[in-house]
Amino acid sequence: MGMSYRRYLHGERIYGCSKCRTHLTTISFMISRAFNGQHGRAYLFETVVNIVEGEPSDRVMTTGNHTVRDIYCIKCNTTLGWKYDKAYEASQKYKEGRFILERNLLIDVQ
Ligand SMILES: [Zn+2]
């Protein structure tokens, strides 16, 4: 069994993977709560750790075309959301390099 190196976060409110409690991000990295994921409400974060990024793919969303990568928990491999590589609409550029995490897949670990 291999061991993966995981980072531990510190802060007032830490969000983790609901399945294995691996730390993912904190409330100080949250940009917006007003997003929709594949399974309901989702949050946009500036930084997420302890994830694996999938291959880029183009997706048409309500806000236009985007190139995104699915992101997976480094420990349990659950699909947690996606990362925006590129947004084609000027008004959506702020999402580039940011991460969507599905609310239902997050727990408070602290
Ligand atoms: Zn996990």
From TrEMBL:
UniProt KW Zinc keyword: yes
MF terms in GO: metal ion binding
Keyword vocabulary terms for this entry: Metal-binding, Zinc
Residues of the signal peptide: none
One Pfam family linked to the record: Yippee-Mis18
InterPro entries for the chain: Yippee, Yippee/Mis18/Cereblon, Yippee_fam
Record's keyword annotation contains NAD: no
Domain Yippee, first and last residues per copy: 13-110
PANTHER family for the chain: PROTEIN YIPPEE-LIKE CG15309-RELATED
Family stated for the protein in its record: Belongs to the yippee family.
Protein name: Protein yippee-like
